[in-house]
């Protein structure tokens, strides 16, 4: 018990004082207007949007063209060791016939909670390749389902076949050094030891790009990324 | 030498035997590929695509979602084939060979086996089933509730005819369009149609397809009731087929499709298939049978034809298309200042996810004039010498929508599609598929159409005789060849690209001749008279017997 407390204390301090890599991901180009999702095939979905319609989430930009839904992780430079699995669950909710969040990270063996907050059938078609893929029917009689991913896999596509516009991505990481940007485009990867790391950013259509970053002990360093429309 | 050694070691390790290899190379590799990757030389020509064993994803399992099948599951697929696909049944090669080939494909997904072994999922765990209950009406009715509450109708439709609002958008994991099963055609279920098979389908899910596992969502008991409901939708007879339709003679013709007369009329089933004689051929016939009833009153014929079509398509309409995972970013056409950038990048993209469709059509084909015995024109719309008479309906969209509430159903309005109205039927002459013209001075054919939840019902009325020389002349008592055409506009069926039956017969009951009664009565009277005479004679002889018997026996003795 004592040891545990000490361990936790150590981990906590390491989080507070260890190095971190932060940054902003931006879209380099004009901000396109995304298509409004047509949900009238299912009145339950359509009823969730009385005002503004939900829009396609392929590109979600904040003010100043910052990019949301970018999965950021350390892709190399970490010490070869196993990291403890967080006890809290990663969550993906199906609400208003859209996945919340659109991109989510989870550690190997961490509990992943699929929720259905809609009064309609969703099927969670997890198209994993490294992990065991499955297709879970979630009618209103199944509001929550706990799953686990046992292997690192970047990224797993999740689809709802009943509502073909619904798509999301799960990044299963073997370590805890990852983050997903919000609309402000910001990410922060904390708790890093001194070293040289490769930071990888991923977008569902634009793929990945990486930058090398060296941090010293307890240093916080910023590194920004930008994506643009690929030339033809 | 080294190579041989490696080979033999791998054979020992993976259980591949000479027999399994021989069977695989002979029967399987053409589609599934040398190394089981679903890439054999014939793979491009089959749809659905052959399984890629290396993915370790198998559709038909008795095991839990996300797990490998049991060996018995694979043996069953090889032995019995998969209905409605290019996978034939190989039971004829014998159990030993079937077992050997199932062992042979194992190494193709060895990586999946290893992973599952490591994680404690191999051997795979069989999904819990309990015992199948005795079916009764209450269970079927409850299964119907489970069906609606669980959202089965979103794809399979309100009445199970594969016409749910999501049906046309479905894609499989290969990103190919895939259709939900029409639950009224159980004999076409890919994974079998026994009560256990149906239970299994929604318990385990069908991997690689939109069909999810409902093991966690629906209790075992409710799933059995659901299975009972689904099973109740199909006829007991598989692929029901009739040689002819007999039109009963009635005093009063039915005015509507819901007339009670139809309940007593013979319902004939005629299978349809894709037209494959002429380009463009129809490799994916959507409409696979039509049921037909007929009655007449001596002057007019009324036909009631019913067929399933999950998509309601008419001239100028559009419909959702399969939501394949293409490069669509979901940008709106307008809205960005320099939309040119995006247009440039997506120049070959369709802006709308809807596709325009062709009209649904239906036709009945007869020979022209007075049909000669045993002579039928060429089945694909006749030829120069032998023309055919077509009664043809093409959907112009002129029907009235019926509100779901009319049926007293609430809560599932989005699953409801109903249209009704009179339709015009064209009377055509064809001397071949590309020589179709309107039949002038033809008899009028009246049409009433009703579409509801994936099923068309078309009622046709026409005089038995009259019109032009090209009109089929119908005469009670005479067998008349008839053939059926159906076009699914959503699948771009038109002209010769159609669903077609072979020739069948229409036989109209003859009115009973009054003389029949007189003749029958006379025959009965004559018979009675003869019997009376015969009995009397026999009795008389019996009385005289003693005197007669002796001379007879003497004669025999001599």
Descriptive account of the structure:
- The complex is a heterodimer of chains A (232) and B (558).
- Chain A is mainly beta and 232 residues long.
- Helices cover 9% and strands 44% of the residues of chain A.
- Chain A has a 5-stranded mixed sheet, with no helix packed on it. In chain A, strands 1, 13, 16 and 17 form a 4-stranded mixed sheet that branches. Chain A has a 4-stranded antiparallel sheet with strand order 12-2-14-15, with no helix packed on it.
- In chain A, β3 and β4 (98-100) form a beta hairpin.
- In chain A, 39% of the residues are buried.
- Chain B has 3 domains: 2-118, Cytochrome Bc1 Complex, Chain D, domain 2; 137-232, Cytochrome Bc1 Complex, Chain D, domain 2 (Orthogonal Bundle); 244-320 and 354-508, Immunoglobulin-like, CATH 2.60.40.1190.
- Chain B has helices at 2-14, 18-32, 71-80, 95-105, 110-118, 137-149, 153-156, 195-204, 220-232, 261-264, 339-345, 515-543, 545-557, and strands at 244-249, 268-271, 273-274, 289-296, 300-308, 318-320, 354-356, 361-367, 388-394, 400-401, 418-424, 426-430, 436-438, 446-452, 455-463, 479-487, 499-500, 504-508.
- In chain B, a hairpin with a 5-residue loop joins β12 (426-430) and β13 (436-438).
- In chain B, α8 (195-204) packs across α9.
- Chain B starts with a helix and ends with a helix.
- Chains A and B meet through β7 and β8 of A and α11 of B.
What is the distance, rounded to the nearest whole angstrom, between the alpha carbons of the first and last residues of chain B? 100 Å
Q: From the helix content, strand content and strand pairing of chain A, which structural class follows?
A: mainly beta
Main beta-sheet strand count, sense and barrel state of chain A: 5 strands, mixed
If you consult CATH, what is the topology of the largest domain in chain B?
Answer: Immunoglobulin-like
User: CATH superfamily of chain A, please?
Assistant: Cupredoxins -  blue copper proteins
Mean pLDDT of chain B: 88
Number of helices of chain B: 13
